[in-house]
Amino acid sequence: MVDLHWKSKMPSSDMSSKAPKLSIPDKSLPSLQLPFRTTDISAAAPPLCAAYDHYLRLPELRKLWNSRDFPNWTDEPILKPALQALEITFRFLSTVFSDPRSYSNRREWNRRVESLATRQIEIIAILFEDEENNNLTRGTAPTADLSTCSNQTRSYSEASLLPRLATWYKSKDAAQRILLSVECQMKRCSYSLGLGEPNLDGKPSLQYDAVCRPHEIHALKTTPYDDRVENYENHAVHATHQIVESWIHVSRKLLERIADAIEARRFERAAEDCHAVERIWKLLADVEDVHLMMDPDDFLRLKNQLAVKSSSGETASFCLRSKELVKVTKMCRDLRHKVPEILEVEVDPKGGPRIQEAAMKLYVAEKITEFEKVHVLQAMQGIEAAMKRFFYAYKQVLAVVMGSSEASGNRVGLSCDAGDSLTQIFLEPTYFPSLDAAKTFLSYLWDNNDNNNTNKWI
Fold this sequence. Notes:
The chain is an all-alpha fold.
């Protein structure tokens, strides 16, 4: 018997007034006692993480992410690394168009990197739009009024690569399409990015050069091994992972803000940031897919030149050499601890369904007045789904690019291996078992009511 006393609080309807009380034999229900076991994810060995940081020049990149040039701009720690990731993508696009290899699939490379730029612009525009919708942050971004610009002063970036790519015959079409994407995506904002987009509405322009600091970003395009590694894929691997690390840092800052918003009961704000984190996980999967375009021989030769291999006994996957990725993954998992706070109920120390029942009440009886809570819970589960897909997709990319036999050196080639952390992350039980159970029982409720109402007419 399922106890559904909360049903009396449901909104009145023909269904709720005439259908009999739900009574389901225990044997008809699937087991909802989910074993809450999570993979003990941890970073790779310290020497491997240090080599990863050194190759990508992450210490210098982190200084740029964390620099504060506009103290009154609350969202600078989030939007600055996002814009810097976009600028690295423009550099990546330039590298692709400059590729001298006759066997490179230039057309598909161009499409992939252009698509990455467009996806990032979409997320950046969402972040700016959410900033403007927040009373605490509206109007704090550093912008320049076009009416005050003199004839000698350009109204858009002088340091970004994109305006220059828009004038080069090889990259002109792709760069102009990106500029049109900027124009379209920033339509709902009161200012534009200042990258040279049409700006048909004559809106103020973000001080892109002052925020992004493109010159300093492009100074980090070289790797410590350029003098002894003659391999064109080196540029692609370096740029790809710098983009990934920049967006991982954005996710970390958003997750910190989500925790603060939930504590302050600003649930709609938390939901917006959760959806942004979900989009970033999907973007990271798209960035990793770029590895599928790399020439097999060049990439594997580069891997040997960089000594990108596991040490003896090392089972951590390559992506876990990113300490920031491990940190963000744990922060996404820890969102489950916010559920009782959102539902305003304490966890039952005896393991009772207290949280589950509160979720059912919210989904059915209280969603009209507390819909913000529903939104944030949905968004948190969206993060879980996107994050698990990222790790499973990364496993597939690793096996395809390096070969399943080579990948199995990191215990990734065997899908059932307990040491395969990527598969375990994908297969582990839901982080929100109470929400899962609430939806399961709610589904049985409506199925039972529908069946009884149908039987009335037979």
